[in-house]
Design brief:
By secondary structure, the protein is mainly alpha-helical. The chain has four helices and no strands. The chain starts with a helix and ends with a helix. The mean pLDDT is 89.
């Protein structure tokens, strides 16, 4: 595992979780703060292990994100995180 890239994904997933949380009624998610850590880590792991991120990690192409339909990495990670959070927890 490339820890730097995993941490990057993890931070974006956590940011997305928080953005969603503050828009919810009473600013609450179905998991409390402690339980949400595990959920955020699981989502980050799923994103890290998907084909797009793994393609980035295994390519020599400096323009990898521009050659995918998913464009920039932070946009892709946060959009994917929002979709997974919605699917699994909302």
């Amino acid at each position: 595992m490339n820890r730097t890239i995993f941490n990057y994904v993890l931070v974006h997933v956590a940011r997305t979780w928080e953005r969603i949380r503050v828009t919810r009624p009473s600013q609450e998610m179905p998991l409390d703060n402690i339980a949400s850590v595990e959920a955020i880590e699981q989502i980050a792991t799923e994103i890290y292990n998907n084909d797009i991120v793994q393609g980035f990690l295994t390519t020599d192409d400096d323009d990898y994100w521009y050659n995918t339909t998913d464009t920039m990495s932070d946009i892709y990670i946060e959009e994917t995180a929002a979709n997974l959070i919605t699917e699994y927890y909302l």
